[in-house]
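Open question from group meeting: does this chain pack into something compact, or does most of it stay loose? Before anyone orders reagents, we agreed to write out a predicted structure and look at it together. Recording both the input and the output here so the notebook holds the full record.
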Amino acid sequence: MDDPAISRRGFLAAGGGGFLAAVAGCAEPGSRARSGRGDSSLPSTVDLEERADGTVYTEIYADVIDSVAMVTVSGVETEDGGEGAGQGSAFVFDDHLVTNNHVVEGAELIQLQYTNGDWTEAEVVGTDVYSDLAALDVVHRPDSAASLPFADVLPTVGQEVLAVGNPYGLEGTMSQGIVSGVNRSLPGPQGYDIPNAVQTDAGVNPGNSGGPLLDIDGRVVGVVNAGIVEGVGFAISAALASRVLPSLIEAGRYDHPRMGVTLREVTPAVATANDLAEATGVLIVDVPADGPAAGVLQGSTDQVTYEGVSIPVGGDVVVGLAGEPIPDSGALSRVLALQASPGQTVPVEVRRDGESTTVDLELGARPTDP
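Structure tokens returned:
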């Protein structure tokens, strides 16, 4: 599915250099801060054999921290043709480690360090640019580094969550917050959004990308993807990651479904120009002749100017897909990503020439290299 949403490159460029670093979620290796290990400056009144009782967060941290590693990459080609390096986070899933594709993309050397101090080399066994996920095979994994389970229920706004990772190279860091938004769309390649993302106000900084966002039962709610500004971070949802990762591990790739159309959100202006009773659904602007929707869905037939804006008219308006209502392009992306597969035939409910009708569409697959 094509979507006129802002491109990831444009999205990242919008806020300047600091914004870029935060979104990428990768810290430069040289930015790793001192851990404070071996500090002998503690006053003698402190009992070095005792620790504070802690909280439920302390228990979760103890349960999961051995399964989270710091990722260090080198040999990444830079925009000026040189070589760069970076850092991120990863966690154990099904005898592999999971991280973001953007953390390891193009790296010649990938090394991981577990919180017990062990280092290991890793190689990529599967990547998916459309969900920004990657699966890594490692030479060594400590026995205590167990696979972290994914949450089997959808997150909800206000739910307490914990981000674990390595911001700025500070290994084994935990931050606490809530789910502050759900069903967010993150800009992806070639106009395809990453749907169903989880928004959180838990501290997410460069170096956190690829680490787990956990609920208070220690289950993965999402794979941390980006920290935009203070208090606004995002994670690839467990619902999407749990579909993509098994395929990355087994086949090295994941095939996303596509309708093969160009879309326009139905705003009040688009609804007025197309004589629609309400501003809901997505308008089909174009149907390429070689795409899955050719001969099934109809694109716009003309353009009109409404309040100084050119608006396509005459195309199908998608209001339902696979039995789910489609109020906007985000819902369409979400249903395709979480409930459909290439080669599957799905019913598409559309408004066409003032009437409601349902057509059957066999979904195609997105190009593997966007």
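Observations to bring back to the group:
The chain has a mean pLDDT of 88.
Residues 257-365 form a domain with the Pdz3 Domain fold (CATH 2.30.42.10).
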